[in-house]
Amino acid sequence: MENSLTFEQFCDYFNKESTCIDALFASRWPEGFRCPRCQHAGYYFIRTRTLPLYECQSCRAQTSIIAGTIMEGSRTPLRLWFQALFLHAQPNGISALRLSTLIGTTYKTAWLMCHKIRHAMSSADSKVLLSGIVRINCGVYGRPYNPTIFRHPQEQPLLIGASLDNEHQVTHLKIKQVSDRHLVHDRVTPLGSRLFIRDHVSPETKDIDTVLLKFSRNRHRQLIQIGEQASAWMNYIFSGIGPKHLQSYLDQFCFNVNLRFHPYCFNVLLTYCASFPTLTYPQLTGRMDLSAQRRITYHEYLRSA
Predict the structure, then answer these.
(1) How far apart are the C-alpha atoms of 178 and 196, rounded to whole Å?
(2) Residues in domain Transposase zinc-ribbon (predicted)?
(3) pLDDT tens digit string along 79-98?
(4) CB of 153 within 8 A of CB of 132?
(5) Taking the CB of residue 265, how many other CB atoms lie within 10 A of it?
């Protein structure tokens, strides 16, 4: 589905559940049905429910079209899910309040849909590692409140990493919230940067440069500007984000940047949502607040350096 479509044109195209079912089937099983239990290709099509079931001809397991996707367990019609995906695939995304108005659901339903979609974005991005020319710089969400080293509670330290091409243009972006365990006041410890490299940079990468000091003359200004853009985007679209769910919004910003030149963002996002299991409401509300974790002491910082 091309990015050039308007929301109205998109709704006209996906105005029936059957059309959405066909598109979701193609995204979930692009090479044809495979039983989730035994990988057998043959199936019986069962039409007695609102959403079809696929019964494996080998092991007889029955699979719903939304089982194993972020939509599993949802009673929201697929066409509304598709509308939400289309709006999230746009460059600026959408807030839950605005989404609930446009697709006609309650705010709670729209809020949960938004977070499930961001969960798919995060899950897909976790499988892609930075490589080639990699630059990493510290950043902050929330304007600096203090001219000293002491951190204001609303300042959320970040690490911003990017793969660059030979012209030093960003080809892939990752922005990660830093746990308080890897901070001394507002400074990211060397251990924190090593963990970022371990988790988000390909082991074969040789050209890595990391700047952890805010006012280093070697800091990567391009990455600092991207961090400022992410902060401005979250403040404008969502009126500010607390630390508990900050990472999922950062992942959405990175999704928008990484696919900014892709002609079929909706198709990519639909594939993500068809490939990863759902995030339940208890899992979502039970997320750990990174700012609530124990802060590292100065002596622990010296030992990690």
Answers:
(1) 9
(2) 17-62
(3) 999 999 999 999 999 999 99
(4) no
(5) 22
